[in-house]
Amino acid sequence: MAIVVVVGTQWGDEAKGRVTDLLAREADFVVRYQGGNNAGHTVIVGEEEFKLHLIPSGILYPGKCCIMAAGTVIDPLFLADELEGLEKRGIDVSGYRVSGNAHVVMPYHRLLDRLEEERRGRDKIGTTCRGIGPAYVDKAARCGIRMYDLFDARRLRSRLERVLTDKNALLTGVYNHPALSVDGVLEEIAPALPKIRPYVADTASLLSQAAAERRNILFEGAQGTFLDLDYGTYPFITSSHPTAGGACLGTGIGPSQIDRVMGVTKAYTTRVGAGAFPTELNDEVGDRIREKGHEYGTTTGRPRRCGWLDGVLLRSAVMINGLDAIAVTRLDILDELDRIKICVRYQVNGREIDFFPADVEALPDCQPIYEEMPGWQEDTSGARTYEELPLNARRYLEKIGELCGAQVAVVCVGPRRHEAIVLDTMFSSAEKPA
User: Fold this and answer.
1) How big, in percent rounded to 5, are the helix, strand and coil portions of the chain?
2) Do 3-95+202-422 and 103-198 show the same overall fold?
3) Nearest Cα to 173, choosing from 119, 211, 102?
4) Measured between alpha carbons, how far is residue 190 from residues 7, 101, 168 in Å?
5) In the predicted model, what is the mean pLDDT of the chain?
6) Residue 333 belongs to what H/E stretch?
7) Taking the CB of the first residue and of the last residue of the chain, which one, N or C, has fewer CB atoms within 10 A?
């Protein structure tokens, strides 16, 4: 038995879904612990591509229990559509469960998210406008709606009457938008409720029992370390905790029960939306990486900003998450480059630093200090063992491990399940001694 956490080490979009799908082979439970349908995981099985948002990628393996835990936020209309879409493609979703204590993304959350982004103008955060932030705001303000509330008509109406009093004051007074009615909101979400009701459960108890039975459990975070509410590049962040600590908060599993933590990093760095990005490439090389890597958001379709691998960012992610190992994805995207740079330190105000600045306002002033390495200019997609990789590719991976202080456990050289080199399955070596 082992409990393993998978986290992103950058600004999200590290191909965590790809790695989660790989590790899920040995897992009995695959669990999302934060975020909502602002995250997107793309997984290719055979010749089929699946884009998942509210259902963990483990659902693509028969017999897995896949959970959206209490720390997530759920858009019921989106969830109903995603479940139906998978069923139409022949995927068995009977093993899916969603926490009854997970908060609900209501129609007014999506509306307020969009209106607030429009109001910010040039200073917008770059949210997906899916209502995730406003839903977490209501959770913290103790006026949110939870999944259990959806199936008690009297309770739901009572809570909506109270919350819409405040929301309508905001809509009409600040945004000059027509007020919403309780009946209108109820009517909008009603079609989804019978579709999602069978999947709502007490997931904390389910996971506690699974841990007691010594089952393999895989926790997956959405987004990445530097979008974390506390440790990210504030205010250009998400609204929850994608770091490893968030796995305990979001699921009800205690920290002493976590066995190992794996971080996922691309062989380069990407970022969507606004915010500082020290290693960003606004040149032909950045464009080349974007096009070869199809670097466009799974959820939004927005082009991702691309740059060299940031070893400072990665080193700090190892520290924040307590990473035992890392998975390096998309190594094949660099195959054609003759020279590759990797950021080893920052220079700021005349001094060199090895870690991400605690005051992120200093980040725009941080200049990357690069180490340049020779490329391999060979196709890596056919490699299935570490030894089959070109020598310079191995040296690059070794440099990544050396810089961040964590072993490289997985190397992905393509989007399909078989296009990966697994040096450590995490589960087989994770169990703690008795």
Assistant:
1) 40, 20, 40
2) no
3) 119
4) 34, 19, 21
5) 94
6) none
7) C
Cα 246 from Cα 239, distance rounded (Å): 12
* SS3 label, residue 277: coil
Query: Which CATH class, in words, describes the domain spanning 3-95+202-422?
Result: alpha beta
pLDDT of residue 433: 41
Amino acid, res. 11: W
Token pair of 372, please?
């340049």
Nearest residue to 112 (alpha-carbon basis) of 91, 89, 135: 135
CA atoms within 13 A on the CB side of 252: 18
Q: Give residue 299's pLDDT band: very low, low, confident or very high (50, 70, 90).
A: low
Question: Which residues are known catalytic residues?
Answer: 13, 41
For the stretch 26-45, pLDDT in tens is: 999 999 999 999 877 788 88
Predicted local distance difference test score (pLDDT) of residue 429: 58
Structure tokens at 215: 């089952």
Pull the structure tokens for residue 221: 């975070």
d(CA 260, CA 280): 31
| pTM over cut 0.85 | yes
| 245-281 confidence digits (pLDDT tens) | 999 999 999 999 999 999 999 999 999 888 999 999 9
Categorize the per-residue pLDDT at 430 as very low, low, confident or very high, splitting at 50, 70 and 90. low
Q: Are 274 and 12 in contact (CB under 8 A)?
A: no
- Rg of the chain in Å (alpha carbons): 22
The DSSP secondary-structure symbol of 209 reads H
Q: Which tokens in the block code for residue 105?
A: 């993304």
CATH code for the domain defined by 103-198: 1.10.300.10
Two tokens, residue 187: 């009517």
What residue segments make up the domains of the chain, in order of their start?
A: 3-95+202-422, 103-198
CA pair distance 227, 238, nearest whole angstrom:
5
Query: Max CA-CA distance within the chain?
Result: 66
Specify whether the CB–CB gap between 188 and 206 falls below 8 A: no
What CA–CA distances, in Å, run from 132 to 38, 114, 232, 330?
A: 7, 11, 17, 28
Most confident range, picked from 112-121, 123-132, 222-231: 222-231
